Amino acid sequence: MKIKKIKLKGTVYILPNLFTATNLALGIKAITLVLESDQHYKQAAECLILAMIFDVFDGLIARVTKTTSRFGIEFDSLADLVSFGVAPAIMVYRYALSSGNIGKFGFLICVVYAGCAALRLARFNSRIEDETKSFSGIPTPAAAGVIASYFMLVGNGIFPQSIFAAQWILPFVAVALGVLMVSTIRFPAPAKQNLWRKHPFRYLALAAGIIVLIIVCPGITLFVIFTGYTIYGLVNYARTFFKPEPEPESESDIEHEQEQEQEFEIENPNTTFQNNESNKSE
To answer: Is 134 helix (H, G, I), strand (E, B) or coil?
Structure first.
């Protein structure tokens, strides 16, 4: 019996978009958890971390199975907006901005973060070819990872539930992350640089070590990874921004180079003649 091939052209590719749909569902679940109770911030943060894993695998599966599509790109961005834009903003608002000294500015901070996430994703889709080896602005999953890992540390009791940290530091961090998302600061994209192909065993050992640390102490490890990634991008930008520009050559240096070229032509007339003949033939 002859087996017919299933033609996927012109259809919605099920497998990668199934992972994207799971990413979206986890983002909605995180929102509902914090709306139900003030004791569910840790569980909501864990939902966001799981959403990041599915967000990574949907693109990976699409590339491996060669089922990338414009529909998948747009669907992925919409899911990311909910999971890494709206959900973290609602978590911060419910935890720190719905009451206290900030007052009506809490809603504004929430809108700034979610709005910057939407702008970041829209810019990514419109200039996707410019984001091959590095990202322009911090990616939305990384920004959401900073907030999610913070709530994981608070839920584990590692970070104290300080009123000052909740009502002032966390909102400031949310606004700063929103600004970084729409900034032009370049952040590395290790997954798109194929570094593992150059040193596969080294990066395999590094990945295994990170996975073990996440299993043993997830909150601390994830917080270090996401904040370290953010700080690395800022430090790298500052280093290139303050790097002194090369001084232009002076007239004496240019004249000295011209004299050296003339001396070379005098000492090697055959080479000059051959170069002229080759230029004529071209």
So the answer is: strand
Which tokens is 244 given?
Answer: 């002194």
Instruction: Give the CA count within 13 Å in the CB-facing half-sphere of 196.
Output: 11
> Can you list the domains of the chain with their CATH numbers?
14-238 (1.20.120.1760)
pLDDT of the residue at 279 = 42
pLDDT tens string 18-44? 999 999 999 999 999 999 888 889 999
Q: Identify the pLDDT of residue 275.
A: 46
Contacts 24+ apart (CB under 8 A), 213-220: 218/49, 218/152, 219/149, 219/152, 219/153, 219/155, 219/156, 219/158, 220/153, 220/158
* Distance separating alpha carbons of residues 260 and 232, to the nearest angstrom: 45
Please report the pLDDT score of residue 32 as a whole number. 95
Own/partner pairs, 223-229, CB within 8 angstroms, 24+ separation? 223/146, 223/149, 223/150, 223/152, 223/153, 225/145, 225/149, 226/142, 226/145, 226/146, 226/149, 227/146, 227/149, 229/138, 229/142, 229/187, 229/188
Parts of the chain with a pLDDT under 70: 1-12, 99-103, 128-132, 191-200, 241, 243-282
Q: How many CB atoms lie within 10 A of CB 196?
A: 15
Helix (H, G, I), strand (E, B) or coil at 98: coil
